[in-house]
Amino acid sequence: MNKLKLFNPNRQLASFVSAMSILVLSSISMSLAQSVGTLPVVPQPQHKPLVVLISIDGYRNDYMSRGFTPTLKRLADAGTYADNFTPVFPSITFPNHYSLVTGLYPDHHGLVNNTMQDPSKTKQIFKLSDRESVTNPFWYEEATPIWISAKQQGKIVSTLFWPGTEVLNHGLRPDDWLNYDDNMSSDKRVDQLLEWLNRDESKRADFATLYFSEVDHAGHEFGPDALEVNEALKRVDAAIERFVKGLERLDLLKDTTFVITSDHGMAHVAQDHIINLSMVLESTKSAKLVWMGPVAGFNVESVDAEPMLERLKAYPHMSCWHKSKIPPEYHFGTHRRIPGIFCLADVGWSILPNLGMKVIPGMHGYDARAKEMQGLFIVAGPGVKKQTLAVVNNIDVYSFLTRLIKIKPEPNDGEDILFKQIMD
Ligand code: AMP
Ligand code: ZN
Ligand code: ZN
Questions:
Q1: Which atom in ligand 1 lies closest to the alpha carbon of residue 94?
Q2: What is this structure's pTM?
Q3: Which ligand is nearest the CA of 131, by number?
């Protein structure tokens, strides 16, 4: 079969590099012996473009060199790859996923951590284990995520998980979405998204998301250097190969642009690298520790913050600030959901209220510029330059996505630089 025939007539100017990218993508799909699914294929006569934003939670940039993700490597080699993908601070899941789809720093989109309290809604605590809080629009409505803008501008959106896709925003939701199910296997996630994409083009998505959690899970439980992480990498890579193969089967591959990211990396945490706050908490009983781990936060309404800050500053391996004094490069500290006193541990250290808590072997949340926190960034598809960029920042991805999907962006904190850098 002549792969160049696969080009859309209106993309005849696509470069040789793009043609090569498509050949590589096709070769990935054809390298699988078995076909995915047996659903009848719905024809795609118009070859409407599809943009798929994929997140592999906790995929550290150097995992690529381990050799367990050959599909990702082939996609990276066929398109644009970043040696470093720098998260927003704090390098935590919900803040970063929402920045990717809003172009806003956590201070401005409101998801400042995976666990939050809000002074104007004192009863509810936002935490991932509490479905009622995770699905409450209140926490998300300070920003308009890209799928809502896309819907407002006449596009169709299918989301196979992404923080915020389960909630109404501006009265809208993605066309396809599911309540988050951590137990759904990576393969199942792929198959469900493929099923949604196998539709008549008038109903098929222009933009889709796909989210994988098992690399992050393994990194936390066993540490980033563990064999279990490599096994998780293999499974997720196989799921992405399955996705590519499925898209080929549905005649969608040549029209698909993949934007593959992660939210942060993962650091090894030493069991004895604990910053034990028991003395400070003992001496300032009314200060409440509401965040702990790589970043810590104290609610200090009724506390004289200055003496407490002085005591905290005496501890090695962490920096503490009044929230209004966090250095500007963190872009963090103005949101009401950030506690009054905020501390950041050195990479590999944990800030804990006492020595009685078990430290898990892998953590993130540290300074987003740390090498251990760098994530994954690949773009592959028609018109994508074949190149390696030194650094791409999470905050700039939103503008790029809006250009790919051809929608008007909301005002945001990112720079609109990636489209020119990445596309022919
Ligand atoms: P963390 O490593 O603590 O920053 O959080 C990562 C975890 O977030 C992953 O292990 C997922 O299980 C979980 N997660 C991702 N998306 C959602 C969601 N929509 N609702 C609840 N939990 C989620
Ligand atoms: Zn994460
Ligand atoms: Zn994690």
A1: 4
A2: 0.93
A3: 1
